[in-house]
């Protein structure tokens, strides 16, 4: 019988970070390059339709993934081979049950409420919803970030690049969007297959049978993962619903708000390697005390990012945003700085919530603060949009993020070796 001993990967932070950085370079270059091409080929309203569909698809992906992106890496990092196999199988069972109704509903909404081009909106929806079917989170937990690079970043960036070539040679906006979709589907299938193969080959037949006997029912998994799922869903909805609401309500200058929305998401994608490496690194500490020390370190890094991002956007943001808009969308300095504020706070929430607080077994705290910030932020966005258009909406979103980041950071930094009853049960 093969070893059942616990296998915490001993890779350091930098060895985890390098392939994630390469992933981000590949994805950011192709994604940013596709934005002006789509904007010029489809027009401002056509591009907004694609972005609108992507927003809906991302919300659908968060529902289908059901929190595995939040708690999955920590669970896998501390599991033995049999437990890893069981957890992955459970994720497949749950996602299979959720995918058809959730993605189907999101697709219908993307077509019904598209700002202009319904087909582009649908393709955008499917291209981001496909991410829920992959196993990127599994490789973060095992520390196999090179595997994540080859199975996720390479197919997605290749698909986007092919779409760009098609648009540049007269293929049209739909051909470019189709390239993005195909790349996303291939990435999800590849990462899922490799994770499944890795799980299964680490065990012999008897261990596989033992793991399968303990795979939980869908009903149990829905109840067990409710905190991680609600945190993921609320965070994703907070990231993508503003554009949906803004466009549906017909607030002033939807194209500018869509551009600000796209830029902060691209910025978050660019910073994701650091957040993902931290999410993998913190729970891999040798003991509880070392985990707390790492959690505090990443929290401090996140708070520095909150201060630096608006300053960076004050200097370069306006020029970058106007370039990404293909010169079709004028951008004010105030909108650029507010976009930087959203980016910095969103990065801090990702790092502190998923890398620090989840590793310290308080997913429930992340979930509750996410809900409070969601209500405050969306309300502030609507009020701000009515009062001041895109800049008011962006500032309202900043308030909602600050409501979440502040208490989470304070909780992590106040740790003095205490263990609550909730942490013990978790």
What secondary-structure arrangement, pairings included, does this model have?
Layout: H1 13-65, H2 68-77, H3 81-112, H4 118-129, H5 136-142, H6 145-168, H7 173-201, H8 205-213, H9 218-224, H10 226-249, H11 254-281, H12 288-324, H13 333-357, H14 363-388, H15 390-413, H16 421-425
For this entry, give a set of tags.
single chain; 426 residues; mainly alpha; 16 helices; 0% strand; globular; disordered N terminus
Could you provide a short overview of the structure?
The protein is 83% helix and 0% strand. Helix 1 packs across helix 6, helix 10 (226-249) runs antiparallel to helix 11 and helix 10 runs parallel beside helix 14 (363-388). By secondary structure, it is mostly helical.
Please explain how this structure is put together:
With 426 residues, this protein is an all-alpha fold. 83% of the residues lie in helices and 0% in strands. The chain has 16 helices and no strands. It is globular.
């Amino acid at each position: 019988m093969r070893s059942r001993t616990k296998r915490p990967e001993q890779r350091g932070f930098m060895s985890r970070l390098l392939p994630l950085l390469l992933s981000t370079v590949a994805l950011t270059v192709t994604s940013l390059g596709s934005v002006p091409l789509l904007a010029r080929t489809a027009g401002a309203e056509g591009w907004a339709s694609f972005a609108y569909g992507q927003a809906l698809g991302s919300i659908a992906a968060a529902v289908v993934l059901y929190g595995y992106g939040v708690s999955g890496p920590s669970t896998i990092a501390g599991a033995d081979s049999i437990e890893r196999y069981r957890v992955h199988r459970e994720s497949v069972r749950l996602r299979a049950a959720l995918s058809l109704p959730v993605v189907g509903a999101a697709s219908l909404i993307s077509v019904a409420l598209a700002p202009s081009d319904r087909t582009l909106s649908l393709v955008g929806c499917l291209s981001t919803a496909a991410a829920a079917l992959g196993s990127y989170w599994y490789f973060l937990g095992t520390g196999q970030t090179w595997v994540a690079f080859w199975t996720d970043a390479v197919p997605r960036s290749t698909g986007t690049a092919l779409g760009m070539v098609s648009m540049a040679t007269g293929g049209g906006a739909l051909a470019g969007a189709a390239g993005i979709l195909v790349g996303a589907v291939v990435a999800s299938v590849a990462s899922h297959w490799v994770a499944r193969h890795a799980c299964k080959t680490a065990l012999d037949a008897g261990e596989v049978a033992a793991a399968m006997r303990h795979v939980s029912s869908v009903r149990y998994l829905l109840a067990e993962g409710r905190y991680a799922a609600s945190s993921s869903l609320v965070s994703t909805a907070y990231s993508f619903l503003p554009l949906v609401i803004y466009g549906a309500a017909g607030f002033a200058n939807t194209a500018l708000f869509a551009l600000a929305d796209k830029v902060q998401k691209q910025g978050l994608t660019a910073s994701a390697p650091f957040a993902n490496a931290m999410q993998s690194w913190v729970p891999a500490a040798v003991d509880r005390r070392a985990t707390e020390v790492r959690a505090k370190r990443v929290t401090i890094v996140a708070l520095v990012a909150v201060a630096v991002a608006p300053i960076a956007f004050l200097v370069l943001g306006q020029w970058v945003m106007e370039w990404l808009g293909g010169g079709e969308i004028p951008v004010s300095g105030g909108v650029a700085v507010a976009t930087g504020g959203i980016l910095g706070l969103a990065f801090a929430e990702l790092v502190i919530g998923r890398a620090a607080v989840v590793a310290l077994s308080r997913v429930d705290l992340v979930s509750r603060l996410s809900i409070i910030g969601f209500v405050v932020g969306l309300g502030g966005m609507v009020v701000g949009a009515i009062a001041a258009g895109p800049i008011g909406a962006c500032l309202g979103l900043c308030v909602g993020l600050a409501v979440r980041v502040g208490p989470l950071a304070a909780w992590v930094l106040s740790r003095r070796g205490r263990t609550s009853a909730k942490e013990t049960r978790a």
